[in-house]
Amino acid sequence: MSENIKKIAVLTSGGDSPGMNAAIRAVVRTCAYHNIECIGVYRGYEGLIDGDFESLDARSVKGIINKGGTFLKSARSKTFRTKEGRQKAYENLLNENVNGLVVIGGDGSFTGALVFNNEFGFPVMGIPGTIDNDIVGTSHTLGFDTALNTVVDAIDKIRDTASSHNRLFFVEVMGRDVGHIALNAGIAGGAEEILIPEEDLGLERLVDSLNKSKTTGKTSSIVIVAEGDKIGKNIFELKDYVDENMEGYDVRVSVLGHMQRGGAPSCFDRVLASRMGVKAVESILDGETNYMVGLINGKMELTPLDQAIKGKTKINLELLRVSDIMST
Ligand code: F6P
C-alpha cells in the first residue's frame, strides 16, 4: 500500500440516494482502519471550492448506516464546471494536505472527477450512488435496491385503491432516461404494462393490451411509466389519450416523485455501500486512480471512470419477456 497517501477526502454529489451515508461511513472507517486521516466535504464540489471541510474519525460516523440522504449534503455544482472553480478546489485540497478524493455520485459527478484528475493529476475514485442504476461497471448502483422497495410498496398501496374503485392507474417512477426502476418495480408490483424509454410500444398497442386485459376479467390495472418514456408527451397526456380511446375505466395518474430517493437504505444497499467504501479507499491506497468501484458478478471490481460515464446500462431483455408473460 502507498506510503504517500496520508489523507483522503470524501464527498457526495448529484442527486442523493439511500446508502450514501453508509458509504461515507465505510470510507471514514476504512481510513481509520489503515491509520490515515479522512475529511468530509460538505455540499459536493461546491464545498470543495469553498473549503467546507470537516475532519471525520470512526466515531463521527456512528448511527448513520440506517439513515437516508447524505449528512455531507449534496449539490450539482456549476462553478466546478469552470477552470477557476476546479483550480480553487485543487488549492483547498493541497492546503489541507489531502492526497486522494472519493466521489460518491452519478455520471455527472464522475465526469467532474475525471476532468479534475486530467487537469491536476489528483487521485480520484468513484462510488456509484444514484437510484437510477444507469452506470456502466456495476450491476447495482447505491440506492437502486432501496428505491425499488419504496416503489413496490407504493404500487401495492395504489393497487388497493385501484381495485376498490375498478380504476386504471398510470404510475410514474424516476430513472431519468433509463427504465431500470420501472421494469423491476413493475414486475415486482404486478403491473399490467411497463413503459420504458428503451422500448417503444406505441399508444395503440397499449390500449389494445389494456382492452384485452379487461376481456380476460381484470377490473383494475396499473401501468408503470418510466419518467424518460416518450410514448406520451407526459403522463397526463397519456392518461388523456387512454381516457379518450378506451371505454369503461376511471383513469388516474400518480407521480411518485422524490419520495423514491428517501428512506432508510435496504440491507442490500447497506452491505453494498460498506463494500464499496472499503474497496474505494483501499484502491486509492494501492495507487489506483480514475476508477469507479462496482459490483460485477458478486465481486467488487474497478471500472475506468471514462468507461463508466460513457454508456448507459442495458435493459435486461429477459425481464422484458417476463413482464410480458406476467401480464397475460
Ligand atoms: O438521478 C436521480 C434522479 O432522482 C432521477 O431519477 C431524476 O430524473 C432526477 O434525479 C431528479 O432530479 P432533481 O432532484 O434535481 O429534481
TrEMBL record:
Coiled coil: none annotated. GO terms for molecular function: 6-phosphofructokinase activity; AMP binding; ATP binding; fructose-6-phosphate binding; identical protein binding; metal ion binding; monosaccharide binding. The keyword Metal-binding applies. One of its GO terms (biological process) is fructose 6-phosphate metabolic process. Its main location: cytoplasm. Allosterically activated by ADP and other diphosphonucleosides, and allosterically inhibited by phosphoenolpyruvate. Pathway: Carbohydrate degradation; glycolysis; D-glyceraldehyde 3-phosphate and glycerone phosphate from D-glucose: step 3/4. Residues 7-283 form the Phosphofructokinase domain. It catalyses: beta-D-fructose 6-phosphate + ATP = beta-D-fructose 1,6-bisphosphate + ADP + H(+). ATP binds at residues 15, 76-77, 106-109. ADP binds at residues 25-29, 159, 190-192, 218-220. Its EC number is 2.7.1.11. It is an enzyme of class 2 (transferase). PANTHER family: ATP-DEPENDENT 6-PHOSPHOFRUCTOKINASE, PHOSPHOFRUCTOKINASE. Homotetramer. This is ATP-dependent 6-phosphofructokinase. It comes from Neotamlana sedimentorum. The lineage of its organism: Bacteria, Pseudomonadati, Bacteroidota, Flavobacteriia, Flavobacteriales.
